[in-house]
Structures are given as structure tokens and as C-alpha cells.
Specification:
This protein is of the alpha/beta class and 122 residues long. It has one domain (3-57, 64-116): 2,3-Dihydroxybiphenyl 1,2-Dioxygenase, domain 1. The protein is 20% helix and 35% strand. It contains three helices and eight strands, in the order βαββββαβαββ. The strands form two sheets. A four-stranded mixed sheet has the order 1-4-3-2, with helices on one face. Strands 5-8-7-6 form a four-stranded mixed sheet. A hairpin with a 5-residue loop joins β3 (39-43) and β4 (49-55). The longest helix is centred in the first third of the chain and has 11 residues, at 17-27. The radius of gyration is 14 Å and the shape is globular. The two termini are 20 Å apart. GO terms for molecular function: dioxygenase activity; lyase activity. Residues 2-118 form the VOC domain. This is Catechol 2,3-dioxygenase-like lactoylglutathione lyase family enzyme. Keywords: Dioxygenase, Lyase, Oxidoreductase.
């Protein structure tokens, strides 16, 4: 097997699983793939990646460089940004490059989600 076809899981601690879940599920629109009392897996249905959000074990310590970048390939819908903010997000500056090519929204724990207008290309 080669890594170019591998699936990806990003695991993060969170302080309030319900609040962070609302941000990614209701705000961003990811699907709930699996849930236990202290664990939520969220991702696009049929996608090759997902977030594993774990409550209670570690305290989140995000930095400005802890980015989850989604390459949308189109302008960022203001309604999406409004939904993320309504579900606990905060629009934050992310520097000249990312501010030019998208919008950055911090989740309730401070991890940053960049919605990029650029397309992913190899």
C-alpha cells in the first residue's frame, strides 16, 4: 500500500464536546460518524478524512499554527461563516496569505479552521 490513498484522522482534545460538536456538525456541516460520551468522530460522509474530538483527557493547547485548512475552490459563502460564528466560532486574522485566500474561524477551543478559496492541487 502507498500513502497517497491512505485515509486521514485528525485527533484533538476538547473541553466541551457538545460545543465543539455543534461547531463542526451544525456550523460546518460535517456528519456525525460515531459518538460515545467522551468521543465524537465527524467528517464528510464517504470522505477519506475525519476529526476525532476527545473530551476530558487532555486540555486543548492550540497555537496560531494549528490549522485545519479546507480548500473550497470557490468564494467562501458568508452564510457558512455566519453559521460557524452562531455555533461558537470566532473569525480571527491568520496572516497575510490566509487572510488573502480565505477566512479563518477559531472553534470553541481555539483551534483554527481555514476556509480557503483556493483549490488543492499537487
Amino acid at each position: 500500500m502507498t500513502i497517497e490513498h491512505a485515509a486521514l484522522r485528525i485527533a484533538r482534545p476538547c473541553t466541551d464536546l457538545d460545543a465543539v460538536g455543534r461547531f463542526y456538525l451544525d456550523g460546518l456541516g460535517l456528519a456525525e460518524l460515531f459518538r460515545k460520551p467522551d468521543l465524537l468522530m465527524a467528517g464528510p460522509r464517504g470522505g477519506s478524512w475525519h476529526l476525532e474530538l476527545v473530551a476530558g483527557h487532555l486540555r486543548p493547547t492550540p497555537t496560531e499554527e494549528d490549522l485545519l485548512v479546507l480548500y473550497l475552490g470557490e468564494p467562501v459563502d458568508p452564510a457558512l461563516v455566519a453559521r460557524l460564528v452562531a455555533h461558537g466560532g470566532t473569525v480571527v486574522p491568520q496572516g497575510e496569505y490566509w487572510d488573502r485566500w480565505g477566512v479563518t474561524v477559531a472553534d470553541p477551543d481555539g483551534y483554527r479552521l481555514v476556509l480557503s478559496t483556493r483549490s488543492w492541487s499537487n
